Amino acid sequence: MDSRKIVFKETAIIAVGEVICVAVMFGIFALLGKFDQKVLLGGIFGLLLAILNFFFMAIGASLAADKAEQQNVKGGQGVLKSSMILRYLVLFVILFALAKSGICNRLALVLPLVFVRPVLSVGEFFRKKGDE
User: Fold this and answer.
1) Alpha carbon separation from 73 to 18, 33, 95, 132 (Å, rounded)
2) What is the pTM of this model?
3) Domain count, the chain
4) How far apart, in whole angstroms, are the C-alpha atoms of residue 75 and residue 70?
5) Domain ranges, residue 79
6) Which of 30, 53, 83, 114 falls between 20 and 30 A from 19, CA-CA?
């Protein structure tokens, strides 16, 4: 399968899982009587940041794998390191700006970033045998 297709497929799986997790998070906030516009905005921004972070991570990993296939292991490692540093720096700046602005709930902003790992784990249960 083409590496771009794999990146889009995995990102779509993460997006669906993230939407489900954020909807559950909204439900829990509502049950606790804490759901308001700040929680809604925090969840939406967190959801978008989590999906974009995963997408750019997958793109970086794909580029690094392509370099490794071309016998350029050092170049692949450099791509991975620079991708990670750039993603984390941009993510930190955006999260900091949103948290300091006060327009969104901080917990609702950060939780979607934590949901990525469980979504990946659960997604493995539904993976067909033979899929890479």
Assistant:
1) 33, 52, 33, 21
2) 0.89
3) 1
4) 10
5) 3-125
6) 83
